[in-house]
Amino acid sequence: MRLLTSPPVDSGPADAQPALDEISAGSFADGFKALGDVHRLRILYLLLARGEMCVCEFVPALDLRQSNISFHLKTLRQARLIKPRRVGKWAYYSLNRLAFEQFLGVFGRVFDLEKWPEKPRCAACDDILHSTTGKKVITELRKGKQ
Question: DSSP assignment, residue 36?
Fold first, then answer.
């Protein structure tokens, strides 16, 4: 299985950066996609604040049509960040705390800034920036901002 890792870093051992396999990366991306909408973030916040909620309770809380809310709930459910519970014809949703904690844990491990030292720009970029052409480009960019 191919691993997604950062380019080699000169400081520290090669295994200092966590690897993210393709399957985990896909699940992780699905989680970010689910969190990439203001309405879905509000749904998660409501579930955190209130606990389990019926779909009908989201309508006045979010001021959205039920069809829109159902779409957002489906997206969150597919990312496994929420879980449904049916009682007759009613659907109730709650935060899937285990999946949410796992998502946050992966995020914390992969994006732990202590493990990813800040790197200076590459030498090639510095050469371009300090060249005559690079200085002209920077001067033109500054003129455009004025």
Answer: S
The Cα–Cα gap between 46 and 94 comes to: 9
- Number of domains present in the structure of the chain: 2
Parent domain of 29: 18-115
Whether 59 and 69 have beta carbons less than 8 Å apart is answered as yes
Which pairing describes strands 53-54 and 3-4: parallel, antiparallel, or unpaired?
unpaired
95 phi/psi in degrees, rounded to 5: -70, 135
64 and 124 assigned to the same domain: no
Check which CATH number belongs to the domain holding 26 and give it: 1.10.10.10
* DSSP one-letter code for 114: T
The percent of residues in the chain predicted with pLDDT above 90, rounded, is 42
Q: Let me know: does 100 contact 81? Beta carbons within 8 Å.
A: yes
Return the DSSP state at 79: T
Task: State pLDDT tens for residues 86-128.
Answer: 999 999 999 999 988 888 888 888 777 787 777 766 666 666 6
Ranges assigned E (strand) in the chain? 3-4, 20-21, 53-54, 82-87, 90-95
| Cβ proximity of 72 and 40 under 8 Å | yes
